[in-house]
Amino acid sequence: MAVEVETLDKLERKITLSLPIETIQSEVSARLKKLARTVKMDGFRPGKVPTNVVAQRYGYSVHYEVINDKVGEAFFNAANEAGLHVAGQPKINEKEGAPEGQYSFEAVFEVFPEVKIGDLSSAEVEKVAADVSDAAIEKTIDILRKQRRTFSQRAHDAGASTGDRVTVDFEGKIDGELFEGGKAQDFQFILGDGQMLKEFEDATLGLKVGESKTFPLSFPADYHGKDVAGKTADFMVTVKKIEAAHLPEVNEALAKSLGIADATVEGLRADIKKNLEREVKFRVLNRNKTAVMDALIAKAELDLPNVAIQAEMGRLLEAARADLKQRGIKDADKVAIPDDVFRPQAERRVRLGLVVSELVRANKLHATPEQIKAHVDEMAASYEKPEEVARWYFSDQNRLAEIETIVLENNVTNFVLSQVKVVEKPVSFDELMAQN
What we know:
- The strands form 4 sheets. Strands 7, 8, 9, 10 and 11 form a 5-stranded antiparallel sheet that branches.
- A hairpin with a 4-residue loop joins β1 (3-7) and β2 (12-20).
- The chain contains 12 helices and 13 strands.
- The two termini are 57 Å apart.
- By secondary structure, the chain is an alpha+beta fold.
- α6 (265-299) crosses α11 (397-419) and α9 (369-380) packs across α10 (386-394).
- The protein has helices at 21-36, 51-81, 134-147, 198-204, 252-257, 265-299, 306-326, 343-363, 369-380, 386-394, 397-419, 429-434; strands at residues 3-7, 12-20, 86-94, 102-111, 116-117, 124-129, 150-153, 165-174, 177-190, 212-218, 232-246, 300-301, 421-426.
- The chain is elongated.
- The protein has 3 domains: 3-111, Alpha-Beta Plaits (2-Layer Sandwich), CATH 3.30.70.1050; 149-246, Chitinase A, domain 3; 260-434, Trigger factor, domain 2 (Orthogonal Bundle).
């Protein structure tokens, strides 16, 4: 077999493959004979169908299969012999003008690039740190109390105030015409929870039972209701009921209702602190990991294989359609989504994947079984039955592969932080939790 390798572009290559016709014909004959032993055809007993009859019926498809198999095998061997790291599937076409007694093919494909990572010691990475303060614990307790609040009807002579649950009738018009969703009766919402637009809440504040108020309301340009977005409506709201909120006391009963093992106020605070510290650790790690990956990308030189970018864009598009379907969007699989919407994200993912792979290979940063087990145990520790959660992870190779990826990324993060100039930056709990 003669092999020629040409460089067409930075990462694009072409291999010319030549296969003896005799080799193809010999394999076709062998497969037809084997097929004749099992094929069933009218007028013949099983295993007694003449080879020439089998060839008439199946000869073309068997010939096609053999060509595909032999060319694929030849390409694989040629690429290995040339030391090529092939990206994606090659495009193979038969070449005209082959020498007598030969089939010739051209395989055009891309290879993975050489990745050059610059001097990491000259890079600077901002590493954040955050603590769980007493104020954060108190704020969390307040949220838990609000989630368990109860309501009781207030006196008619009391105006609605922040925290009250109000029942109202309302009607809104744009240019004198009612619009969809602009009218409701016995509608309930809690003042101050942000369920309604601020202008609506402000108009309701202070009203007593039986009182009405008319007011203009400007819908934001990015309002989810496209028919009214950016428009101003005239509303009238009538208060029918006002209920005051009652928050549960911070005591043993609250701790018990939350399923705290140590059902005391101290046990409640300790449990909240433990959970917040776990969340803070997760968010800090992710933020620092992103900073590390940004630094890695900035220090890396490589060309990106287009076939890998196209494959990643396809995965992102598929994920976007799945998300639309989950949100109840009709015909989500037919929604027009331009491919290039995902190109920047796909390019970053491909670039990062290649850079991280090279760093892992060069510095032996692969996730060890011990690291994977430790990570699973840490995740499982937050559940009531950690042993069952750990078994759940280890019972599925896909779930375990996800953990392995996380551990590997943590290894990369720690390695890069040990090489670069680290700038420590403390952030507040609220700032950290406000970030997505």
